[in-house]
C-alpha cells in the first residue's frame, strides 16, 4: 500500500498528539466527586488511600467513605467503610478520619458528635478492620478521648509513629493541640514521665487539623488556621527536634487563591520516600460555593527549599501528574 506524504505527516502528527496527551495526564482537582473534607491520605500495599469526612450537615455525617488509587489519577470509591450503626455512642458529625496500619490491622480514628462540653457524649473514637476498605467496627465500645483536656476539643486526631515505633495521638480543636502516648493496642494511653497523659504542644495561631511527619531527622508539625467555614482557612507549620516541640510557627504554606478556590486547609501529606515526592491532600471550597460544608478534596505538590523549609503550595485545577507508588 502506498501512502502520500500528507497522510504520513498526518499520522506522525497524530502519534505525537497521542504521546503528548499521555505525558500530560493529570489528576485534575478535585480528585473525586462529592463534598468531602479533612482528607487523611496514605499508602497501603502500593496503593494510595484517602479517608475524608463526608461533608454534609452534622446530622447526615453518620458514615465515612474511602477512596483508593494506583496512580493518583483514577480513584475508586469504597462506600460506608464506617457507619454510626457500628458505633453505638456516635450519632452525628463523624469527622476527620486518621488511618494507621499496625500488626496487620487497620485502625481508623475519628471524631464524633462535636461535643461542646464534658457533659456530652462523644469525642475521639477508634475503629478497626482487617482491610483498608473495612468494614470497620468500634474498637472500644466507647470514645478513646471523651473530655476536654488543656482546653482542646476532642476532635481532629492524627496518629503519628515516631522513629522508635511509639505511636502518639496528636489532636485538638478550639485552638488547643495535645499529644498523648498511645498504648500497644490503642485502647488507651501511657503516662509521660511527669504522670500526665495529655501534653499541650499548641503553636501560635493553631486552630485545628494537626499533622506531623519526619524529614531529615526534623519533626514537621502542620495545622489549620482560620475558620473552616470561611475563605481564610489555611495551613501553617513549624519544625522541631522532637514530637513535643517546642514548635515556633514559621508561616503559612497553603491558603486560598481567589482565582482557583477558597478555604484551602485541613490537609495530610503523601510521602513517597523512594521517589522523594510529597503530595499535599487537602480540602477547599469551589469559587461558586459559600456553604460551609461544600468542600472538595484536592491534591497538589508540596516542595521544600534547600534549607528544608516548605515552599508555599501552588493550588491548581490540574492537580498532579500520574505516579505509581513503585
Ligand atoms: O469537617 C468538620 C471540621 O471542619 C473538622 O473537624 C475541622 O478540622 C474542619 O475542617
From TrEMBL:
Signal sequence region: 1-18
Site positions for Important for catalytic activity, responsible for pKa modulation of the active site Glu and correct orientation of both the proton donor and substrate? 156
Q: What is this protein called?
A: Arabinan endo-1,5-alpha-L-arabinosidase
Q: What CDD domains does UniProt report for this protein, alphabetically?
A: GH43_XlnD-like
Source domain of life? Bacteria
The record's similarity note reads: Belongs to the glycosyl hydrolase 43 family.
Q: Molecular function (GO) terms listed?
A: hydrolase activity, hydrolyzing O-glycosyl compounds
GO BP annotations, alphabetical order:
xylan catabolic process
SUPFAM superfamilies assigned to the protein according to its UniProt record, in alphabetical order: Arabinanase/levansucrase/invertase
Keywords annotated in UniProt: Carbohydrate metabolism, Glycosidase, Hydrolase, Polysaccharide degradation, Signal, Xylan degradation
Amino acid at each position: 500500500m502506498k501512502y502520500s506524504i500528507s497522510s504520513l505527516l498526518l499520522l506522525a502528527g497524530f502519534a505525537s498528539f497521542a504521546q503528548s496527551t499521555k505525558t500530560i495526564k493529570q489528576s485534575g482537582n478535585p480528585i473525586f466527586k462529592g463534598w468531602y473534607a479533612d482528607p487523611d491520605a496514605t499508602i497501603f500495599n502500593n496503593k494510595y488511600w484517602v479517608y475524608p469526612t463526608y461533608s454534609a450537615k452534622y446530622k447526615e455525617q453518620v458514615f465515612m467513605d474511602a477512596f483508593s488509587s494506583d496512580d493518583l489519577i483514577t480513584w475508586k470509591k469504597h462506600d460506608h467503610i464506617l457507619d454510626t450503626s457500628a458505633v453505638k455512642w456516635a450519632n452525628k458529625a463523624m469527622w476527620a478520619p486518621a488511618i494507621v496500619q499496625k500488626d496487620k490491622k487497620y485502625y481508623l480514628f475519628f471524631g464524633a458528635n462535636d461535643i461542646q462540653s464534658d457533659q456530652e457524649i462523644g469525642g475521639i473514637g477508634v475503629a478497626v478492620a482487617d482491610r483498608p476498605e473495612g468494614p470497620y467496627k468500634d474498637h472500644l465500645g466507647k470514645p478513646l478521648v471523651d473530655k476536654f483536656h488543656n482546653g482542646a476539643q476532642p476532635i481532629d486526631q492524627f496518629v503519628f509513629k515516631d522513629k522508635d515505633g511509639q505511636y502518639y495521638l496528636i489532636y485538638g480543636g478550639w485552638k488547643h493541640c495535645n499529644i498523648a502516648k498511645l498504648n500497644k493496642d490503642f485502647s488507651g494511653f501511657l503516662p509521660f514521665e511527669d504522670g500526665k497523659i495529655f501534653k499541650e504542644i499548641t503553636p501560635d495561631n493553631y486552630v485545628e487539623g494537626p499533622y506531623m511527619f519526619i524529614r531529615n531527622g526534623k519533626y514537621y508539625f502542620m495545622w489549620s488556621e482560620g475558620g473552616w467555614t470561611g475563605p481564610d482557612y489555611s495551613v501553617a507549620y513549624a519544625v522541631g527536634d522532637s514530637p513535643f516541640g517546642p514548635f515556633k510557627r514559621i508561616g503559612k504554606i497553603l491558603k486560598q487563591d481567589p482565582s482557583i478556590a477558597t478555604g484551602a486547609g485541613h490537609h495530610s501529606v503523601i510521602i513517597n520516600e523512594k521517589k522523594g515526592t510529597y503530595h499535599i491532600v487537602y480540602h477547599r471550597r469551589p469559587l461558586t460555593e459559600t456553604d460551609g460544608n461544600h468542600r472538595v478534596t484536592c491534591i497538589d505538590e508540596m516542595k521544600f527549599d534547600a534549607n528544608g523549609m516548605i515552599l508555599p503550595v501552588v493550588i491548581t485545577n490540574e492537580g498532579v501528574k500520574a505516579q505509581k507508588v513503585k
